[in-house]
Amino acid sequence: LTLNFGKDSKIYVNTAPFGELKAILGLTNDETNAVLEYRKQNGNFQQWRDLLKVAGLDGKKIEAKKDLLAF
Questions:
Q1: Which residues fall within 8 angstroms of residue 2, CB to CB, at 6 or more apart?
Q2: CB 34 within 8 A of CB 56
Q3: Of 30, 42, 68, 69, whose CA is between 20 and 30 Å from 23?
Q4: Residue 16 · residue 36 · CB < 8 Å
Q5: Measuring CA to CA, which residue among 47, 11, 46 is closest to residue 32?
Q6: 55 φ/ψ angles, rounded to the nearest 5 degrees
């Protein structure tokens, strides 16, 4: 994963699978599952602040990685 993900690469949160979200954003299994479930039920995220709507997700983690997020 790290071989394919350079320091300037972006993670596409609307299409990224479990493993990428977890590893790149530093999420727990529960947080990652919450993101995937929210995305499934509510559709695509439009901006990084939309991720703050996900119940059980640590907003500080998302804010710290916001420059890596792509939509």
A1: none
A2: yes
A3: 42
A4: no
A5: 11
A6: -65, 135
